[in-house]
Structures
1.
Amino acid sequence: MGSMEVHEELRSAQPKVWQFMFAFTDSMALKSSVGLRLADIMHSHGSPITLPQIDTSCLDIPYLARLMRMLVRKGIFAVHHSSNDSDETLYKMTHISKWLLHNSYLSVAPMILELWHYLSQCVKEHFASQNPQFNNLFNEAIECTANIVMKATVSHYKEGFDSIRSLVDVGGGTSGALAEIVKSYPHIKVINFDLPHVVATTPMCEGVIHVGGDMFDPIRNANAVFMKWILHDWNDEACVKILKSYRKAISDKNEKFVFVVIFVQEDDNNIFGDMGLVFDLLMFTHTTGGKEKTE
């Protein structure tokens, strides 16, 4: 290969490097849209909307227009082409922005806001238990993703819950997602088992018993254990310890373990793309020894 060809390949790779360097702008633009509640404003308006109609708090319209240009480019919002001769640009929601509504049951808005800005404080032991603001923010973020997961789990694992009499959700959080199980299977006695400072702020939910404690000291007398995105917080040795302890705690010979986990497959080509690898990186920044599993 000649020097000209090498130079051309090197030159053509440069845009990729720039894109990688500034990839964070996508998430920051997304975070700005959630903070400004752009999706909520459009949803409440009920029809395509202009920038002046979006502006409810003296925003800088030219700056807002530039932000919207980026959000439209990424498919978060879309431009509506009116049939009249108006020069004003109208914006409308897409399926992506519907996930950004604050008061929607299926929403990821709490996950996008300030949670990651507490990363440096999170290395301090028991930070969540000592900081109610972060504790509430973290619980809301976990619950919004749990709602999505539980709805899919209950709808696709119907036969699996029929024979369960009592179930312990290890790390169940604020238990909002457990309502899906109780609603679909009212015969199941559901126990939400999480840290004391988590269950202390958890609202009462009919059919759910809240118990605070340590997951390494399991609750006994249940015939099923549910773990949703729990094992990725721990290294392999700790995971083995957790699983063995719960196996001993459940005396029923028909016991069940139900897991919701992310598997990292480097050559996997699915709709979530590289998110398995992304979550794996989050695990070693947010936990001590945690990782996504490969098998």
Note: Residues 115-261 form a domain with the Rossmann fold fold (CATH 3.40.50.150).
2.
Amino acid sequence: MKILVTGATGYIGGAVVDALKRAGHQVVGLARSDDARNKLTQRGVQAVTGDLADTAGLAALVKDLDAVVWTATTNSEAVDAPAVAAVLDALKGTDKTFVYTSGVWVHGDTRGNVVNEETPLSAAALVAWRPAVEQRTLGTPGVRGIVIRPGIVYGKGAGIPTLLTSSVKDHGAARYMGTGENHWPVVFVEDLADLYVRAVEKAPAGTVLVAVQGPSVKVKDVAAAASEGAGAGGKTVAWPLEEARKQFGAFADALVLDQQFSAQHAQKLLGWTPKGPGIIDELRSGSYARR
């Protein structure tokens, strides 16, 4: 398949590009800048110039493609929603594939319950606009729409866990927001990329997939592992939510959600079996650890 990946030089998008290439697909990466274009070209990926703010330009790019995998985000409804809508309108009636990257934060706090794709949504304020984009993805006529909701992504020494590892430099301990008693649902970046490949190749239209790896992990434990890997001996320190909000706003509220999920749907439907290291080991001695 000839597949356009938006966010192709990003954390998730870059891993998806590599996984799709390994699976034998022809990958085209959306590049907003010359630097992004050069990065893609150096990796042997065809680059096309585009910007999420240029909806007409995005729509024109998709006519010769078999699928679009959307991993890009500006975290702004004003930009993201019209961009997705323009591409879906361009694909309408073609029976081509569109995979949209949402996230587990659209479920809000699960209050100690293990939930799945069928659980009613109660989106965190930061992503309150995303359920509508999901519905547009799933409801556009003549489009094989698929939604993936990743947990907190880790691996390759990048992503949200770096907030913990980098805090050691300033505080001599890994600093977590809130009480640390909440649980993060997590997924290893390469396992997540594998799920995208399986979704593109096999998932029926209308599929929603929660992408998490094993049981959720208590944030205090994640922070302790980050501290160990960063050479701080497991020392951690709490950052009161009220103070964290002053710097991070609604992002802080998302990070203190207590969430637990089942990924059985992805496992049964697509045979997805995550194989990567757990987040605790990855922080202690893997890609995040001080060398």
Note: Residues 180 and 220 are 5 Å apart (CA to CA).
3.
Amino acid sequence: CSLDDFIATHVQACSSDDLVALNLACSIRSMSPDMEEAWHSLFGSGVQPFHIAFTILAVIGLIFIISVARSRPNGRNILILGPTGSGKTTLFHRLQYGSTLNGTVASMEPREVTTNLASDKSPAARPVNLVDIPGHPRVRDTWLAWEKSAQGIVFLVDAVDFLPHKSAIAEQLYDVLTHPSVVGRRLPILLVCNKSDMGVKAHSVDFIRKRLEKELDLLQTTRSALEDVGGGRAASTRLLPPGAQAFTLAALQAATGIEVGTASASAQEGDGVGLVEAFVRRCAPA
């Protein structure tokens, strides 16, 4: 297409500064014969005015593309998942600010921030994109908007209120572990048992891990049987291949390469958060 058509098509995407450059390009495009002669005497006959015009437009286009790319997820996404009340937003603030601010309020919308971790000491540290996904069943699948650019998943459970909700927690974790993006990309996951500051009221990491492994094993058996009866492809949503041993996180890693680490932490007090920060920086190096 002609330069005039190109300008007419793209002018709406330009800022005021860009329009100044476009006006310059148009001025070059409409030079009088005397101006063109002066131009050739200055730059030589090999450089035509429209060459400069297209160069200016190419620079404008490059700036526009870069600005759009910066406004999108940067491919260094760390997703914070888990049921409602597990402390996800508290951890989100702890990682960003090193504190919990003035408390948190449950939200039905994801929170997202591109930031250095509060513990980063080097000014050259690269920022990471933290995404806090709501835990309510109706909206917790919004994490799928970041699935293809995620580098790791932090999955929080409430170590105090774990037993009454162990089945629901296992179902959410099962859906994450069997998701095609997690399986295909072998996304690392850190299972964080939060609220360790509650002392004896908080269950230990080993207790929670073993209970979840039993629940996940039961879910695999149940879902596979239902899909077999319904003619579905049970193997597509299995944690382990058919005929494998009872489910454990270690068996999952051996069979699929998906690493699920565990940690005990208190997002409220900051205890153990260093383990989470180390996981984040392993997934998205500084």
Note: The first strand starts at residue 77 and ends at 81.
